[in-house]
Write a structure and sequence with these properties.
The complex is a heterodimer of chains A (190) and B (1002).
Chain A lengths: L1 H6 L4 H8 L18 E2 L14 H7 L4 H4 L14 H8 L8 H12 L6 E2 L12 H5 L11 H5 L17 H10 L6 H4 L2
Helix pairs in contact in A: 5-6
Chain B lengths: L6 H9 L15 E4 L15 E6 L8 E7 L2 E7 L12 H4 L1 H5 L9 E4 L2 E4 L2 H14 L4 E5 L5 H13 L2 E4 L6 H11 L6 E2 L6 E4 L11 H12 L9 E5 L5 H4 L3 E3 L6 H14 L8 H5 L3 H8 L3 H13 L3 E4 L10 H14 L7 E2 L12 H12 L5 E5 L3 H4 L6 H6 L3 E4 L13 E2 L10 E6 L2 E5 L14 H11 L9 H12 L7 H11 L1 E3 L32 E6 L13 H5 L13 E3 L1 H6 L6 E7 L2 E9 L7 E5 L39 E10 L20 E3 L54 E6 L8 H9 L6 H6 L8 E8 L6 E2 L1 E7 L18 E3 L5 E3 L9 H5 L6 E2 L27 E2 L5 H13 L12 H5 L5 E5 L6 H6 L4 E2 L3 H4 L5 E4 L1 E3 L9
Parallel strand pairs in B: 7-8, 7-15, 10-11, 10-13, 11-12, 15-16, 16-17, 21-25, 22-24, 27-39, 28-38
Antiparallel strand pairs in B: 2-3, 3-4, 5-6, 5-17, 9-14, 12-30, 18-19, 19-20, 21-26, 22-25, 23-24, 23-26, 28-36, 29-31, 32-33, 34-35, 37-38
The chains are: A mainly alpha (190), B alpha/beta (1002).
Chain lengths: 190, 1002
């Protein structure tokens, strides 16, 4: 706890709130579990359990981000797709390029187990970032902010990574200034 | 994040003892995992709350609740606005149910006795053992349960039927004498329902209806509506007659400090006066005609004229409502006292008007102590082979003189269904932990025609392998070859509802879904509301002042139910231990209330530890001198002094039940609580009281809570002391505005710098009506639950490190036990005032305290470095500091934390945020829907919880908002504003008194 305490004012729970992709279970009552595991993983801490190619899904197939990240328009959390969402296609789609990776998805589904994705994007625990305020369409019907503006050209990434996105306060505020939206502290920090 | 250590980071690290390395943003040192659902539950969107309707299980009143869940865990309980009992509000104990759900002392699974201790056992083995023992018991089964009028109670009855046993209902706070009195007076074996809103003159003979009596949340709402000043400038009156001024009594306009046990005499004397002027007295005409008023007045310590005057006003200022003595007044003549009060209600014409027998309070019905007394006889006689205990803790709540432990010990096989070990479970052979009400199915029928479903709001907390007692009993009955009609308790509840025919002609499945969604359904009640006939008196029930045990020179001992712990069942919750008692403002430990004159006579000061002895036992506890008890009375709250209930309860305070005899009242069989006199002797020890009240319950001429006489309403003088402060403008200060000004008078701080646009930005503001506030403290715990406010425990509190964001100051202006007269206690809920000209802001060296464009005084936790300058400069003492890592609580108490609110770490200043997370949530929603925020859409946690509807919140810049309209009231003032020009966003509306207040408003 000590290392965490130094930097993270918000404790475990704020983390839960920021994340909230919790479930390993399949009924509404069974929706409890720890959201975050903190562990030091060697050698490549950012290796995903399945080599999920964003470029094929979002790029080649042109799938909408929100097909998988389903709650971005209506929640503070963008949503990590349930295994059932993957299975929606991969029940029949074998995967031409990486059938062995697709098979892993099926294994998870068969074991009724959640896929432990490694988290790439995370704002600090003391920041509230409501996805829906940024992603939901404005009066013209366009998203206020394109996903790529913060997450980079995900549709071109074979391996998801944070490119030139410091997720720092200055970076957020710069955009808020350009767009003439609130720069008040208590909009994000409370 | 790259770029080395920043200045603020550095300060922060130093503040945290220099441990560890700094880590911000997207560090890759620690890898977090994102764990998605395998199959997503339909009703859950991550990050969005899901609400379930249910029923509160903390007391028998049966308030309907809405439970807020996030990602499948319950985080907050609120009242269900559609439920007629809660009406949207919830008391402090109701909020604390979450700490029952996540209580770290809950059992991990079933336990079996092994010598002096317990060993874990599997559910299969435990249930098999239960079935074996039940099968071999030959019908000698005793089931002791709490009061339950729903499907569970029905199942208990069926279960005892098929096992050939007996069921005994036991509630430590029982209204048996009231029920017996209703039976004798009107031939109706019911607890009447009381309609406060129909009354203009409320008379309570000690019933603590704002704290624990029958249905405190519903009565709190009704009482506030009738007793607070209305639009027409009229106000109901409340007179309290009891030896001790409880929180309920502190809300009275007049206090008649009558001698303990003299309620019947006073009530009958009043009835005699009213009957003497021609009112119908039914079967009591003869008794009242010959009633000796002088003797009655003498026994109460009043004058005959005072009683006669009160009686005449009770009728003239009516409709009236008289309430009998509550649990603390249950003496050896309790039925007579309740009966006398019902007679008074009858002669004053209140039956059918404010007192309803045809639609009684079903929730309060439970069998009297005498039935448990006889069951203990059977246990001692070896007539019980298996004893099952559910929802009751007699080993704690009965006086030791009752010998429950011995009687229970004589039973060969004892089973407890307690979810955490309590004193009774410690004596059991097998403990089968029940699920918490928030995890279980059930129902309640608090009034005729009102049916509420208690549905589980989450999967049972996986750390605890608990099973619903309903399920256990059904499967046990099944194993014994008895089919009770359903495989599990959920099916049983459904079947009961189907049987009751509530769905009418409709499809039951559709009806059931709608019932779950709303939480409550109504059915027509066919019983007509008619005035009941007053039967002839029962010669067996007397009205004499009861005898008290002990030395006649001793002090009459009043043992009263705690508004924080009830009978003690909420004691193992840190929120309730830390909630300041609404009267004494003491936390965590017990205290003895003595009149200051009595204390002086004994040579005692505040905090002196005394030995209190009765013929039945003795306890040691510190003295808190309180002018609200008679000089011949000593008072102690129930609910403390546990010995085997859990980490937060054990060892805190004393259990006053050890001072009482184990005796049931003759007429009703109810437990006698007012029974003994005690001797008080100093031990020579002293302790500091863990009280949050810094100024001895006085205002010290600071005029924090001014009042206004009813007669002065409408022609208040136009005087604003703020005028003196206008010169501040010359040095760049703000323009003082009158507290009752127009919305436009509230300048938006920062507007003068051109930073904030006053046209489009709201200014959030709050109004608190002190004429409504009853001091019940529901808001304090609501705030604690909503805002992750930690618990600091007794040692820290003794150092003045209390951390609650909301506290209720109570100033005793007029509290005089020497004679009947006005009582004036001012309650002031004190929270961050969100000053427009805030003293805390300019002193912060790191700009952590600052003003937002929408009028909030914000505290940016990640900026705060803990200098505490802001707290030192706050005139309202509402900024609190995390001296330690208070938020590290034992698992799974942390599951309750609200994910929308930051959990603060050590070294950070915090305070009320006006529930900024709720404001942001509404803002987000309104933007998505492309509309403006409606007035009343943002509801703070304290406002939501308030049974008295005293708190209004909204945008004061909108002249049509409720908060703007309430603020424009002539009773409005802002605390200390005339002295220091802080321009708070919180305005208070002065309390209204019938008498000329001692410290008149400024």
């Amino acid at each position: 706890m000590k290392g965490k305490r130094t930097a993270v004012l918000a404790g475990v729970v704020a983390t839960l709130g920021a994340l909230a992709f919790v479930q390993e279970s399949d009924t509404p009552q069974e929706s409890l579990d720890t959201a975050v595991e903190m562990a030091v993983v060697e050698p490549d801490p950012l290796a995903q359990p399945i080599a999920f190619p964003h470029d094929i899904h979002a790029g080649d197939f042109g799938m909408d981000c929100q097909y998988c990240h389903f709650s971005a328009e209506r929640s503070v959390d963008a949503g990590i797709p349930p295994v059932a969402t993957c299975q929606g296609c991969h029940l029949v789609v074998q995967g031409r390029n990486n059938p062995e990776e697709v098979a892993k998805v099926r294994d998870y589904a068969q074991r009724q187990e959640a896929i432990p994705w490694v988290r790439i994007y995370k704002v600090s625990d003391h920041v509230r970032f409501p996805h829906m305020r940024h992603v939901a369409p404005d009066e013209s019907g366009e998203p206020r902010v394109q996903c790529q503006e913060c997450h980079g050209p995900v549709q071109e990434m074979a391996v998801i990574e944070a490119v030139n996105q410091p997720l720092s306060m200055g970076w957020c505020v710069q955009c808020h200034v350009e767009r003439e939206v609130s720069r008040d502290c208590a909009v994000c920090h409370y | 994040m790259s770029g080395g250590i920043q200045r603020r980071d550095f300060l922060r690290v130093v503040g945290a003892s220099g441990a560890g390395a700094t880590m911000f943003g997207c560090s890759t040192e620690n890898v977090e995992k994102l764990i998605p659902y395998v199959v997503p539950p339909e009703e859950i969107t991550p990050g969005v709350a899901t609400w379930y309707a249910s029923v509160c299980g903390e007391c028998p009143a049966g308030c309907g609740t809405w439970v807020r869940t996030r990602e499948g865990r319950a985080v907050k309980i609120e009242g269900n606005p559609g439920h007629p009992v809660s009406g949207g509000a919830l008391c402090a104990r109701g909020h604390s149910a979450l700490q029952g759900l996540y209580n770290p002392d809950r059992l991990a699974g079933p336990m079996m006795r092994n010598g002096d201790g317990f060993v874990p056992v599997s559910w299969e083995d435990a249930e098999a053992q239960l079935v074996d023992r039940l099968g071999a018991a030959g019908g000698n089964v005793l089931l002791v349960t709490g009061s339950d009028g729903g499907a569970l109670g029905h199942l208990f009855d069926r279960f005892t039927e098929v096992t050939g046993g007996t069921r005994v209902e036991y509630e430590a706070l029982s209204e048996a004498p009231l029920r017996a009195a209703a039976r004798i007076a009107f031939g109706r074996d019911v607890v009447p329902a009381y309609d406060f809103e129909a009354a203009r003159f409320v008379l309570s003979f000690g019933a603590d209806f704002l704290e624990t009596w029958l249905s405190p949340t519903a009565y709190g709402r009704g009482f506030a509506r009738t007793s607070a000043i209305d639009q027409m400038g009229s106000k109901g009156r409340f007179v309290f007659l009891a030896p001790r001024l409880s929180l309920t009594g502190q809300n009275a306009d007049e206090w008649f400090p009558i001698r303990a046990g003299s309620e019947a005499a006073v009530a009958l004397a009043m009835a005699a006066v009213i009957a003497g002027e021609g009112a119908d007295a039914g079967g009591y005409a003869e008794l009242l005609a010959g009633f000796d008023l002088d003797a009655a007045a003498n026994s109460a310590g009043l004058s005959t004229e005072e009683i006669a005057d009160l009686a005449r006003r009770f009728v003239a200022e009516g409709p009236g409502l008289a309430l009998g003595p509550g649990v603390s007044g249950q003496h050896r003549g309790a039925t007579g006292a309740n009966l006398a009060v019902l007679v008074l209600n009858h002669v004053a014409g209140n039956i059918g008007r404010s007192v309803h027998l045809a639609s009684p309070d079903q929730a309060a019905a439970s069998s009297p102590y005498a039935s448990l007394e006889s069951a203990m006889g059977s246990m001692r006689a070896g007539e019980v082979a298996v004893a099952l205990v559910h929802g009751a803790n007699p080993a704690y709540s009965l006086p030791p003189a009752a010998g429950f432990a011995d009687a229970f010990g004589a039973v060969p096989f004892k089973v407890s269904f307690a979810s955490a070990l309590d004193e009774t479970a410690h004596l059991a052979d097998l403990v089968l932990p029940d699920t918490h009400p928030l995890e279980s199915w059930g129902d309640s029928h608090p009034r005729p025609g009102v049916h509420a479903v208690q549905q589980p709001v989450m999967r049972p907390v996986p750390l605890f392998d608990a099973r619903a007692t309903g399920d256990v009993l059904l499967s046990a009955a099944n194993a014994l070859g008895q089919n009770l009609g359903a495989g599990d308790f959920q099916g049983y509840v459904r079947a009961r509802w189907q049987e009751m025919g509530l769905a009418g002609e409709d499809d039951f499945d559709g009806f059931w879904r709608e019932a779950l969604r709303r939480g409550v359904v109504f059915s027509a009640t066919d019983e007509p509301e008619d005035a009941a006939e007053l039967l002839s008196p029962d010669p067996a029930v007397g009205f004499d002042v009861p005898s008290l045990d002990g030395d006649q020179d001793g002090l009459a001992l009043v043992v009263y139910p705690s508004s924080r712990f009830g009978d003690g069942r909420q004691a193992n919750r840190s929120w309730m231990q830390e909630l300041p008692d609404p009267v004494s403002k003491i936390t965590w430990h017990s205290w003895l209330e003595l009149h200051p004159a009595t204390a002086q006579r004994h040579g005692l000061r505040e905090g002196d530890i005394v030995r209190v002895g009765s013929p039945h036992g003795q306890v040691e506890l510190p003295v808190w001198p309180y002018a609200g008890v008679r000089e011949d009375v000593a008072a102690i709250a129930m609910g403390t002094g546990h010995t085997g209930y859990g980490r937060y309860a054990d060892g805190n305070g004393v259990n006053p039940m050890v001072l009482l005899p184990a005796e049931s009242e003759q007429a009703s069989g109810g437990m006698v609580h007012l029974a003994t006199r005690v001797a008080v002797e100093p031990t020579g020890e002293w302790r500091k009281l863990a009280s949050i009240h810094g100024s001895g319950h006085t205002q010290e001429d600071r005029n924090i809570a001014p009042a206004v006489a009813l007669a002065d309403i409408g022609h208040a003088e136009e005087e604003h002391a703020e005028h003196d402060l206008y010169e501040l403008q010359e040095v760049g200060g703000f323009v003082p505005v009158p507290a009752d000004g127009e919305p436009g008078d509230f300048p938006l701080p920062g507007a003068q710098h051109g930073e904030y646009d006053p046209e489009t930005t709201p200014r959030w503001a709050m109004a608190i009506d002190l004429d409504k506030c009853t001091g019940c403290s529901a808001c304090v715990t609501a705030c604690q639950a909503e805002n992750n406010v930690p618990v600091v425990q007794e040692e820290q509190l003794l150092m003045g490190r209390d951390i609650q964001w909301m506290r209720i100051e109570n100033y005793f202006e007029t509290v005089d036990a020497s004679h009947a007269g006005p009582v004036d206690v001012r309650f002031t809920p004190m929270l961050c005032q969100h000053c427009g000209n805030a003293p805390c802001e300019p002193v912060c060296p790191v700009f952590a305290a600052y003003h937002t464009p929408d009028g909030l005084n914000a505290q940016v936790y990640n900026r705060c470095v803990g200098t505490r300058y802001c707290a030192n400069n706050c005139p309202y003492k509402v900024r609190v500091f995390n001296w330690y890592e208070y938020s590290d609580v034992p698992e799974p108490l942390n599951w309750q934390y609200n994910p929308d609110v930051t959990v603060r770490g050590e070294g950070v200043m915090e305070k009320c945020t006006f529930c900024v997370q709720r404001i942001r949530e509404v803002e987000n929603q309104s933007v998505l829907e492309g509309r403006a925020i409606a007035d009343g859409e943002v509801v703070t946690a304290c406002q939501q919880s308030c049974p008295a509807e005293a708190i209004v919140f909204g945008n004061i810049r909108d002249p049509n908002s409720r908060v703007a309209q309430v603020t424009a009231n002539e009773r409005s003032y802002r605390v200390l504003d005339d002295l220091i020009n802080t321009q708070p966003a919180v305005t208070y509306q002065r309390k209204v008194t019938f008498h000329e207040p001692a410290a008149a408003g400024h």
